[in-house]
Amino acid sequence: MADIELTWLGHGTILIGAADGRQLLVDPWVAGNPSCPDSWKNRVAPDVLLVTHGHGDHIGDAVSMARAHRPDVIGIFEMCHWLDSKGVEKTRPMNKGGSQALGDITITMVHADHSCGILDEGRMVYGGEAAGYVLRFPGGFTIYVAGDTNVFGDMRLIADLYHPDLAVLPIGDLFTMGPREAALAARLLRVSRVIPTHWGTFPALTGVPAALRAEADRSAGDPVDPGETGGAFEVVALTPGQTTSLGR
């Protein structure tokens, strides 16, 4: 069986290739994404779209991709209702704490600490709440995709309940957590690897992987809870368009 692969397309957009060939695209912003390489802009044909929240830099291509490729589209209930109103088919709404299966992949929606308004023809409309996802693949390999968020204490519960092997965390600061907070998030989640996202797109996003590595080294021995020491984790920093193999 082939390995699971993850490609960072820049900003908050990631493409996960399952071992059976299915393509899962999280937060589809490709055409207008200045970080996405031109070579990727017309080659993404997802089988599944996952939307974490309603900001334009995360749903910019959700409607057009859903119409073109007819993937299963997963999001929080209100987000899916809005997508339905735009002619999107095959929405699969859910809410935090819920899970649904797409074949042999289990998708669980979890909390994110962020806002979720949708700018729709000049009006800001309600898009539910921001969310993250836990993706469990056959064989048990588990990815936590945080979406846009700050660190929050209940990341411990994500660790306790779902035991992620890898976390995809935003580090850019200003609109999400920065490297200091992301390092604590990784330790709360007890993951061995972190892929940083939501950085480098615009000058205002000042958090960078080198700063996350420095925070990881600095805090490796600090206690997360009484009697518990946060473990070290590897920072897997990708360039936009780069693919890494995650295991199976």
Essential attributes:
248 residues; alpha/beta; Metallo-beta-lactamase, Chain A; seven-stranded mixed beta sheet; 7 helices; globular
Question: What's the arrangement of secondary structure elements?
Answer:
Blueprint: E1 4-8, E2 14-17, E3 23-26, H1 38-41, E4 48-50, H2 56-59, H3 62-69, E5 72-76, H4 77-85, E6 91-94, E7 99-102, E8 105-111, E9 118-120, E10 123-125, E11 131-136, E12 142-145, H5 155-162, E13 166-170, H6 179-189, E14 193-197, H7 209-219, E15 223-225, E16 228-229, E17 234-235, E18 243-247
Parallel strand pairs: 3-4, 4-5, 5-6, 12-13, 13-14, 14-17
Antiparallel strand pairs: 1-2, 1-18, 2-3, 7-8, 8-11, 9-10, 11-12, 15-16
Concise description?
By secondary structure, the chain is α/β, with parallel strands linked by helices. The chain contains seven helices and 18 strands. Helix 1 links the parallel strand 3 and strand 4.
Structural features, described:
The chain has 248 residues and is of the alpha/beta class. It has a single domain (4-247), classed as 4-Layer Sandwich (Metallo-beta-lactamase, Chain A). 22% of the residues lie in helices and 30% in strands. β15 and β16 form a beta hairpin. α6 (179-189) crosses α7. The longest helix has 11 residues, at 179-189. The N and C termini lie close together (8 Å). The model has no long low-confidence stretch (mean pLDDT 95).
Can you tell me the CATH topology? Metallo-beta-lactamase, Chain A
Classified by CATH, the class is Alpha Beta
CATH-derived architecture: 4-Layer Sandwich
As for the number of domains, it is 1
Note the run of SSEs as H and E. EEEHEHHEHEEEEEEEHEHEHEEEE
The major pleated sheet works out as:
7 strands, mixed
Q: What is the count of DSSP helices, taking H or I runs of 4+ residues?
A: 7
Strand content: 25-35%
